[in-house]
Specification:
The complex is a heterodimer of chains A (about 100) and B (about 220).
Chain A lengths: L7 H21 L7 H21 L8 H27 L9
Helix pairs in contact in A: 1-2
Chain B lengths: L1 H6 L11 H36 L1 H9 L3 H26 L3 H32 L14 H37 L9 H26 L6
Chain lengths: ~100, ~220
């Protein structure tokens, strides 16, 4: 399958979205959102990362299914690392342990 | 079809059936490397998360000693350099090697600008005494935990800066080959794969920026 040529316009629109999201997250950091500040900042970061991966890194246009599998597996692994680590740390002390 | 087949074999390594297979293999190989990079940085993000959960107040104190503008300007620099690298890939796809080289070199120079700013920022930390260990001078509550924040900060941004350094060299060298006309619309894996690397370095920074500079940033 021939390589997909992404148009310059697409790249520039994606870059515009990235800049807008950056201004949004920088601006929101100056406003006290309480507990939501972390969630909002990381959600915006995730959207920006997704835009870079799908468009700049061409994953959206990748014709081989295997590349998708590798990309998804990589981030799924990261999810396992972070989620299982935190289930450990956050649940410490929630069960009584003999001798403590 | 036959002419096209002959033209399409220029730059083809003997162990690949055709240039499409060669390109797909290169892309897949690069992604395998990038997955190992996700694991590499992932461990540090996990360390950040665990210590932040355990020492939230110290993390707020540490974040307050971060310079918002250093972080923000460096984010702008990396996002713009990523656009240039994406446009460089487009340029080589349509056969404009000189334009491709120019974009890669500007992106590389932006990487240098990023490192220069990072250097000024590190210098400010050293002057302030926000360096864990013997150089520590900050008088803050719970200094041990705040030092841990700066320890993780220096390791994460230092490792990221190392990746930026490698990227700067990579883009400059690939740009040089592009200027010599080494690539064609059918065969430019080096440009594409180096681009993937640079965008990955950008993605890491996209997460470092809010985690280090924005979260827990007090109202201005």
């Amino acid at each position: 399958m021939a390589e997909h040529v992404v148009s310059r316009k697409t790249y520039i629109v994606v870059w515009g979205a990235l800049m807008a999201l950056m201004i949004l997250t920088a601006g929101l950091s100056r406003i006290d959102l309480g507990e939501w500040s972390t969630v909002v900042a990381l959600a915006i970061a995730a959207i920006k990362a997704l835009l870079v991966i799908l468009f700049f890194m061409h994953v959206r246009y990748e014709s081989q299914k295997m590349a998708w599998v590798f990309v998804v597996a990589g981030f799924f692994w990261l999810g396992i690392l972070l989620a299982l680590t935190m289930t450990d740390y956050l649940s410490r002390g929630s069960l009584g342990v003999a001798g403590h | 079809m036959h002419d096209r087949a002959i033209a399409a074999t220029h730059g083809l390594r003997h162990h690949f059936a055709d240039l499409d297979q060669q390109r797909e293999s290169a892309t897949l190989g690069m992604w395998v490397f990038l997955v190992t990079e996700i694991m590499f940085f992932g461990g540090l993000f996990a360390a950040y998360l665990v210590y932040r959960t355990a020492h939230y107040d110290a993390w707020v104190t540490g974040s307050e000693h971060m310079d918002f503008w250093f972080g923000t300007i460096n984010t702008v620099i990396l996002l713009c350099s990523s656009l240039l690298v994406a446009l460089a890939v487009h340029a080589v796809q349509v056969g404009r090697n000189k334009t491709c080289a120019l974009y890669l070199w500007i992106a590389s120079a932006m990487g240098v600008a990023f490192l220069v700013l990072k250097g000024f920022e590190y210098h400010a930390h050293i002057v302030e005494g926000a360096v864990p260990g013997a150089l520590w001078k900050l008088t803050v509550p719970d200094p041990q935990a705040v030092q841990m924040f700066f320890y993780i900060y220096f390791v994460m941004t230092g490792l990221h800066a190392l990746h930026v350094t490698i990227g700067i060299i990579l883009l400059a060298v690939i740009g040089w080959y592009a200027a010599k006309g080494a690539y064609s619309p059918a065969n430019h894996n080096s440009v594409h794969v180096s681009g993937l690397y640079w965008h990955f370095v950008d993605v890491v920074w996209i997460f470092l920026y809010p985690l280090l500079y924005l979260i827990a940033h007090k109202k201005a």
